[in-house]
Design goal:
By secondary structure, this protein is α+β, with helices and mostly antiparallel strands. It contains 17 helices and 20 strands. 34% of the residues lie in helices and 23% in strands.
Length: 496
């Protein structure tokens, strides 16, 4: 077993802070790396040491492996935690870290490489009888052959980049006459985005739920799952709201999917934190989608329902320790909901709305957690992902967790830019979400941007009513006399 005394975090923002806090509780010194745009960032101020690694563009800073390794050498770091995004799923980086004599807080380079190819991953897990969506097991390049296979599978079908992610290189084909055009587009986009134009074809599930399982393995062959997360509320194939557990899984189905997730990990000889993603159809049939070989953005909801600190577990496993529990020791406690607070305008197709946080006040109270990397007066840089924060609410039941989330959204105060808070409140109040009867097409089916646009006349009337109650001299509030005032969400007030 090798003890980690100093940890370099090869990331920025909220995840860098998240890792540093757990490391500090373990008595581990931390090193931040930062670009020139992040010189005054919170993670830089929080760390014990900080090293500038280049200009603002990530291609010149956070994605430059040699600069990060040099920073680790310069600061005598023992290990590197990649966070998520950037180099977190890059097998070459993991290999370089290992070759430099450092500990990589994550899986082996071999596991990352295997699961980084969707086709290779499907071939590996098929040997463990993990359910797969009907489709090709090899890359397709010939359009005529691909068209024949698509016809055999039956439309609608999905063309998907082997090396892809984030919805890039993905095309849904409803009818055969559209196949050739969409195939050419998918290959072109995959080549441009990933340098790899290989694609595969699979049956398209028309009412899919996106449910993923957190898995954890140690370097002694032990693998467990930490239950599931429901991640079906998405825009542009990317998650906005996550919750744990899922409202549609029975104990029997949870056990079945959990065992499949563990088998996926075993197929990759996997250790450390990972996420196995499944697609679930309207009949509750589930199919392996992919594996993310890193810590997920939404890991806090798992922490809330299990009481575990996943970052501390990552570090312990990386040091060579065994998992301190078995599958039968784990239970679900209550329900957790996470909303991602992006600097995006939901009324304008969720386009980024970068600017300065003129007002920034976090919600508070029992069961509310905010992971962020900003404070009032800071500017959200346009060089990186526009996520401002993750807000996680935990309570004894799903209904209570949803109500707590609504209260926290109303209390969250942000001015200076548009955010996704209003959209998240819309979701929390929607009957489809409340009932659990929704899928990944929630935005397409139910969201109308007009529903979030401010109505000045109505808001002015509310404000006038409040002022009339509290300001007019002739209104006197006697002891024990109550005055009812209609509440306005902070995200709504900020639009006035």
């Amino acid at each position: 077993m090798r003890k980690i005394n100093k940890l370099l975090i090869a990331n920025r923002g909220e995840i860098a802070l998240r890792v540093m806090r757990s490391a500090r509780e373990m008595g581990i010194k931390t090193v931040a790396v930062f670009s020139e745009a992040d010189r005054n960032a919170l993670h830089v101020r929080f760390a014990d040491e900080a090293v500038c690694i280049g200009p603002p563009p990530s291609a010149q800073s956070y994605l430059v492996m040699d600069k990060i390794l040099q920073a680790a050498k310069q600061t005598n770091s023992d290990a590197i935690h990649p966070g998520y995004g950037f180099l977190s799923e890059n097998e070459d980086f993991a290999l370089k870290v290992r070759s430099a004599g450092l500990i990589f807080i994550g899986p082996s380079p071999e596991s990352i490489e295997l699961m980084g190819s969707k086709l290779a991953a499907k071939a590996a897990v098929a040997k463990f009888n993990v359910p797969l969506v009907p489709g090709t097991s090899e890359p397709i390049s010939d359009i005529n052959d691909a068209k024949k296979i698509a016809k055999q599978i039956g439309y609608p079908i999905l063309i998907k980049a082997s090396a892809g992610g984030g919805g890039k290189g993905m095309r849904i084909v409803e009818v055969e006459t559209d196949f050739e055009n969409q195939m050419e587009r998918a290959v072109s986009e995959a080549t441009s985005a990933f340098g790899d134009g290989s694609v595969f074809i699979e049956k398209y599930v028309t009412q899919p739920r996106h449910i993923e399982f957190q898995i954890f393995g140690d370097q002694h062959g032990n693998v467990v799952h930490l239950f599931e997360r429901e991640c079906s509320i998405q825009r542009r194939h990317q998650k906005v709201i996550e919750e744990a557990p899922s409202s549609i899984l029975t104990p029997a189905l949870r056990k079945q999917m959990g065992e499949a997730a563990v088998n996926v990990a075993k197929a990759a000889n996997y250790y450390n934190a990972g996420t196995v993603e499944f697609i679930v159809d309207e009949k509750k049939n589930f199919y392996f989608l992919e594996m993310n070989t890193r810590l997920q953005v939404e890991h806090p909801v798992t922490e809330q329902i299990t009481g575990l600190d996943l970052v501390k577990l990552q570090i312990q496993v990386a040091q060579g320790e065994k998992l301190p529990f078995k599958q039968e020791d784990l239970t679900i406690h209550g329900h957790a909901v996470e909303v991602r607070v992006y600097a995006e305008d939901p009324t304008n197709n969720f386009l980024p709305d970068i600017g300065t946080l003129k007002t920034y006040k976090r919600p508070q109270g029992h069961g509310i957690r905010v992971d962020d990397g900003f404070e009032q007066g800071m500017t959200v840089p346009f060089y990186y992902d526009p996520m401002i924060a993750k807000m996680i609410c935990h309570d004894s039941t799903r209904e209570r967790a949803i109500e707590k989330t609504i209260r926290a959204i109303d209390e969250y105060e942000i001015t200076g830019l548009e955010t996704t808070l209003g959209f998240c409140r819309f979701v929390m109040n929607h009957e489809a979400f409340r009932s659990g009867n929704f899928d990944t097409k929630f935005v397409e089916k139910y969201f109308d941007p007009e529903q979030l646009k401010s109505k000045p006349a109505e808001e002015e009337e509310i404000i006038a009513s409040i002022l009339a109650t509290y300001v007019k001299e002739e209104v006197k509030i006697l002891p024990n006399q109550s005055v009812q005032v209609e509440a306005i969400s902070n995200w709504k007030k900020n639009r006035v």
